[in-house]
Amino acid sequence: QVQLVESGGGLVQAGGSLRLSCAAAGGIFSIPTVGWYRQAPGKQRELVAKIVNRDKTTYATSVMGRFTISRDNANNTIYLQMNSVKPEDTAVYYCNALGWSFGLGPPDPLDAWGQGTLVTVSS
After folding, report:
1. Please, are residues 35 and 49 in contact by the beta-carbon 8 Å criterion?
2. pLDDT by residue (tens digit) across 37-76?
3. For position 118, what pLDDT does the model report?
4. In the Cβ-directed half-sphere of 13, how many Cα atoms lie within 13 Å?
5. Which of 6, 16, 55, 75 would be a feasible disulfide site paired with 117, CB 3.0-4.6 Å?
6. How far apart are alpha carbons 63 and 75 in whole angstroms?
């Protein structure tokens, strides 16, 4: 069973930086698409950034030019570098992995989520 474990959240002042990490572990898997989502209080979960098929990167307009998503395939880790943060970036951030897990039978589709990490930006 693939699990995603996030770290790196916390309190940061507006204009500062933070880096979130998401480590995947458990079994044998292939994850071509990874993403970061966030959910602010009283709002729906929204896409922040994702890497599709290992090379196509997409960002929400609100974070473009400030946030960078990357992945370390050797260590099965996804990162979100957050620069020039704003109070409106305050939210619980979740990582997501889409792909396949491999066992004794045919590959199983994989859609895994991290537990969430809280980012609070003070003004």
Report:
1. yes
2. 999 999 999 999 999 988 899 999 999 999 999 999 999 9
3. 98
4. 0
5. 6
6. 26
CA distances from 100 to 29, 32, 39, 95, 123 (A): 6, 9, 26, 16, 41
Of 22, 10, 20, whose CA–CA distance to 77 is shortest?
Answer: 22
DSSP SS3 for 43: coil
Q: 65: Cβ–Cβ under 8 A, 6 or more apart, which residues?
A: none
**Rg of the chain over all Cα atoms, to the nearest angstrom:** 15
- Gap between the Cα atoms of 76 and 105, Å rounded: 23
Q: What is the pLDDT of residues 84-97, one digit of tens each?
A: 999 999 999 999 99
